[in-house]
TrEMBL record:
Keywords carried by this UniProt record: Membrane, Transmembrane, Transmembrane helix
Organism, scientific name: Candidatus Gallacutalibacter pullicola
InterPro entries found in the cross-reference section: Zn_peptidase_2
Listed transmembrane segments: 6-24, 126-144, 150-172, 201-224
Cited Pfam families: Zn_peptidase_2 (PF04298)
Record-given protein name: Zinc metallopeptidase
Superkingdom of this protein's organism: Bacteria
Amino acid sequence: MGFYYFDYTYFVFILPALIVSIWAQARVKSTFSKYSQIRTGCGLTGQQAAQRVLDWGGAYNVGFQRIGGSLTDNYNPSTNIISLSEPVWGSTSIASIGVAAHEAGHAVQYATGYGPIKLRSAIVPVVRIGSGLSMPLIIIGLILPVQYDFVVNLGILLFSLSVVFSLVTLPVEFNASNRAIRALAETGILTNEELAGAKKVLGAAAMTYVASTFTAIMSLLRLLTIVNNRRGRN
């Protein structure tokens, strides 16, 4: 049952992923903090800039709402609402406009029928079910005799769906950022110098998704290693 204690697989697979995740979170927070102190020349708030990006991309009838927290901004395709955190909604900083434009970029993806985001939305229900069942099946499979390996194999297969979801998410997030930067440039919302700062903010944010994908892959590799080691002892 090496999944629960610090065996060698923890240090080989999980610890590196944990370090990368901590680094990515620290980087996005420090980058956002830095550029949230720099005001833009256009004077638009994050919400106003997001609306400009929506107009630019042909995404209409998209709603907005304020939410609490920091870096909790998101777009919900089921309600067609962009949720912006308080630090982003009314701020005129480079960081706020960059983050708000990124979320608007997701709305534009749906409006233009961007393939990867449609795929991601389609597999969400399956991934949720798989994530809920995977660990119980893996735990039960590791407890049962080795001849019941099909149980743990099914658990690992379901767990691998989260890896697929993470991999599909990467191009979606990078594309949303690229759309945001392009919109901010073509609409003249940000100057070239300000765009450089927005790129750094969105680049740092993208690294959190890379870290999440890396963690998912390493977790899957650890599970496979634990199961293979178990088979080798039987």
